[in-house]
């Protein structure tokens, strides 16, 4: 096995410990000396032997200059939680936050030595269980940090921190092992209560709804307006950002079928939704007609695989059409169309719709599709329609309340003290400018 994942109910944990061995002991030695039920390699360390970025064990801060980042803090173990303030706990471990309090971190913070496709280790929390993850370096289960994030998101982890990886990745989960020769600086050791009940195999109810958003196409695809002013994949990616922000603000969890620079196959896109057990799937596109030049056809239409109109996918499509109509969006004369030819609609387990927001071959639609205000209108109506279908109250929820500070935090996973530092030196402005131009 080149991948091991453990879910340990917090109620069954007697003790969670960081054992610091300063690169002098192997995992087998740690197992023999500690008798821990679960062992996983821990965080990183500097060339001088000091741990980084933050490691606190048994009340002692061991890292030299703690650089604020979200990590896990705990006193005994069962009380572990994602936090940015290491001062609150006897033990604290941070590395690269992949899923923070706001959801997946868009651009996980790590240096180049941690990048690339490597063995990966991670710690997280899902429902009320501690999650430990390990893949073997050089195996087919090696991952980039971003791929690891996508996998942990699809596994439904509520929060996640990537640990040291590559040749450091190794674990012994009650005898199920991934071995490596490296003697790492510190180890995560979990001890179970003696009379612990067997893990309950309960349903995941924590995040009630997961909406899988599918921004169509990807870089390199030619779909766009005849004059080259508009590209469909850029529009789809931008719409994904707008819609996900609105849904997350209403407590609806969203996942995405691709990253900004990727173009997965249609089957892979359906797979992302299926693995995550998504509540519904919404594919984001713009339409084309004619023979490569401008053409008259215009307006919004929504595809589903087939009737009847009482099927959940068609009720979703109807809720969306109603929301677009209410927002004053121009619709096609038959706004809901059935087609069995669209892979993302037929291979997706969840009720699936594909929205063609307008025609990028229409001289009337293109200026609208390029407009930020119009995109906001489309995104709001999309989120409104989805929430209507989910039964999530729209008006009663508080407004998103995103500030520049929380945008930067969400994108980079920075902790509060890091943000204070950035703001003091006005780096946050530069990051925001970079975000604005990158998108
Ligand atoms: Zn398309």
State the major sheet.
6 strands, antiparallel
Low-confidence segments, ≥5 residues, pLDDT <50?
A: 196-206, 395-399
The percentage of residues in β strands lies in: 25-35%
What is the topology, as strand order, of the major beta sheet? 1-14-13-15-11-12
What do you see in this structure?
This protein has 439 residues and is α+β, with helices and mostly antiparallel strands. It has 3 domains: 190 residues, no CATH class; 181 residues, Aminopeptidase, CATH 3.40.630; 33 residues, no CATH class. It has 11 helices and 24 strands. The strands form 5 sheets. Strands 1-14-13-15-11-12 form a 6-stranded antiparallel β-sheet, with helices on one face. The radius of gyration is 24 Å and the shape is elongated. The site of zinc ion has 5 residues, from loops.
């Amino acid at each position: 096995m080149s991948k091991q994942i453990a879910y340990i109910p917090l109620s069954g944990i007697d003790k969670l410990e960081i054992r610091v061995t300063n690169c002098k002991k192997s995992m087998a030695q740690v197992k023999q000396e500690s008798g821990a039920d679960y062992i996983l390699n821990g965080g990183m360390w500097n060339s001088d032997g000091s741990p980084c970025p933050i490691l606190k064990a048994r009340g002692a801060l061991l890292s030299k200059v703690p650089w604020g980042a979200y990590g896990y803090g705990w006193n005994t173990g069962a009380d572990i939680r994602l936090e940015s303030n290491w001062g609150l706990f006897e033990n604290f471990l941070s590395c690269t936050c992949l899923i923070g309090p706001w959801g997946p971190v868009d651009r996980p913070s790590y240096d180049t030595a941690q990048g690339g496709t490597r063995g990966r280790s991670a710690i997280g929390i899902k429902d009320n269980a501690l999650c430990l993850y390990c893949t073997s370096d050089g195996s087919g289960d090696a991952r980039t940090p971003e791929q690891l994030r996508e996998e942990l998101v699809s596994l439904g982890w509520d929060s996640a921190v990537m640990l040291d990886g590559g040749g450091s990745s190794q674990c012994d989960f009650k005898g199920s092992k991934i071995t490596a020769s490296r003697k790492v600086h510190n180890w995560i050791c979990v001890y179970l209560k003696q009379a612990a009940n067997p893990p309950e195999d309960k349903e995941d109810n924590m995040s009630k709804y997961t909406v899988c958003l599918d921004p169509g196409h990807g870089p390199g695809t030619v779909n766009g307006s005849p004059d080259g002013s508009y590209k469909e994949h850029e529009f789809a990616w931008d719409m994904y950002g707008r819609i996900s922000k609105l849904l997350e603000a209403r407590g609806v969890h969203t996942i995405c079928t691709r990253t900004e620079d990727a173009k997965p196959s249609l089957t892979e896109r359906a797979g992302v939704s299926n693995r995550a057990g998504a509540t519904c799937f919404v594919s984001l596109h713009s339409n084309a007609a004619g023979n490569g030049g401008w053409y008259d056809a215009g307006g919004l239409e929504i595809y589903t695989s087939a009737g009847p109109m009482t099927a959940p996918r068609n009720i979703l499509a109807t809720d969306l059409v109603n929301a677009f109509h209410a927002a004053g969006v121009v619709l096609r004369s038959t706004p809901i169309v059935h087609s069995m030819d669209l892979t993302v609609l037929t291979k997706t387990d969840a009720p699936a719709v594909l929205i063609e927001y307008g025609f990028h071959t229409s001289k009337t639609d293109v200026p609208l599709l390029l407009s930020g205000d119009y995109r906001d209108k489309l995104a709001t109506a999309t989120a409104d329609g989805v929430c209507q279908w989910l039964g999530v109250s729209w008006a009663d929820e508080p407004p998103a309340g995103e500030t520049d500070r929380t945008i930067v935090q969400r994108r980079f996973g920075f902790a509060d003290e890091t943000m204070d530092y950035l703001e003091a030196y006005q780096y946050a402005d530069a990051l925001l400018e970079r975000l604005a131009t990158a998108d």
